[in-house]
């Protein structure tokens, strides 16, 4: 059977067989290189916004490699990596770093070593967008604030290297006053289901309007929460002593506390981040398929409660 005449000659191709010039444009948007994706990521979530203790950026991958599929996830666990590999992602972007603390070996005898080996052997790059993704406009806490219906949102702490609207945490107002119980139910309703649920400290019938939020662990920001006169503080990983001390220092019971899952509070950002990156790449003429991981990487499986 004769092959169809496409009208493309050898002169229209690179040495590797890909199309050149007008023929490539006519064939549709081209897949970007990893390096080009990194530039798009830097436009959205600049590394300069990361906290000085953080480790963000490219963990594994060659900048010249083509990228046709990108997966977003909260954690670079082995399960998430396998999901990305099976889907055919050439790039996995996670919120949490794989190598936040220094290591002296990436041998496959350790969990982190297995992760690095699987990534490299499968040709899957790994990129971390952590506190730069928290601080940037449209970042983790912005998405959380928007999902809760907050208005007039500003950062709890302004970024040292960013714009006035960039920084860690957000504070804003509800359109209408609500009871703490009803607001806690709203928080519960917007988050993905996890074993730990939502914990609340305060008068269930107390009225609230000014809300502070911080996706991820935020018990270092109580001074900023009080300075912004927040009625409620929504964050994750509230430890006993900081939470107890905050309740002891409360004025008229405020700020009330709502403690949520670390994973759940940051998962909300993933669809928004995937959409934002897709838009930037499309504007640059690139065609990339982007998907959010379906893996629940919250570490807890079930909980027992009184009654």
From TrEMBL:
Region (Disordered) residue spans: 1-29
GO molecular function annotations of the record: metal ion binding
Record-level GO cellular component terms: cytoplasm
Sequence ranges of Low complexity compositional bias: 20-29
SUPFAM superfamilies, A to Z: NIF3 (NGG1p interacting factor 3)-like (SSF102705)
Protein keywords: Metal-binding
Subunit text: Homohexamer.
Sequence similarity: Belongs to the GTP cyclohydrolase I type 2/NIF3 family.
Protein name as it appears in the record: GTP cyclohydrolase 1 type 2 homolog
């Amino acid at each position: 059977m004769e092959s169809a005449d496409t009208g493309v000659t050898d002169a229209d191709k690179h040495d590797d067989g890909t199309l050149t010039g007008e023929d490539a444009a006519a064939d549709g948007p081209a897949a970007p290189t990893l390096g080009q994706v990194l530039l798009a990521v830097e436009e959205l979530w600049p590394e300069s916004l990361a906290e000085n203790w953080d480790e963000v950026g490219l963990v594994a991958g060659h900048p010249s490699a083509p990228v046709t599929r990108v997966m977003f996830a909260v954690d670079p666990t082995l399960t998430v990596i396998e999901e990305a590999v099976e889907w055919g992602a050439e790039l996995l972007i996670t919120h949490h770093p794989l190598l936040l603390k220094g290591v002296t070996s990436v041998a496959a005898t350790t969990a982190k070593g297995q992760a690095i080996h699987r990534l490299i052997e499968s040709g899957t790059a790994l990129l971390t967008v952590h506190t730069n993704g928290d601080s940037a406009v449209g970042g983790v806490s912005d998405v959380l604030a928007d999902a809760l219906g907050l208005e007039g949102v500003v950062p709890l702490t302004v970024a040292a290297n960013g714009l006035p609207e960039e920084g860690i945490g957000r504070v804003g107002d509800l359109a209408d006053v609500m009871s703490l119980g009803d607001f806690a139910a709203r928080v519960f309703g917007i988050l993905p289901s996890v074993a730990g649920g939502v914990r609340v400290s305060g008068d269930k019938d107390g009225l609230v309007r000014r809300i502070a939020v911080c996706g991820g662990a935020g018990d270092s920001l109580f001074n900023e929460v009080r300075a912004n006169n927040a009625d409620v503080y929504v964050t994750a990983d509230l430890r006993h002593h900081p939470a107890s001390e905050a309740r002891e220092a409360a004025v008229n019971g405020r700020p009330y506390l709502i403690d949520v899952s670390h994973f759940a509070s940051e998962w909300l950002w993933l669809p928004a981040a995937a959409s934002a990156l897709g838009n930037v790449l499309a504007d640059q003429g690139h065609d990339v398929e982007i998907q959010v991981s379906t893996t629940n990487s919250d570490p807890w499986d079930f909980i027992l409660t009184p009654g």
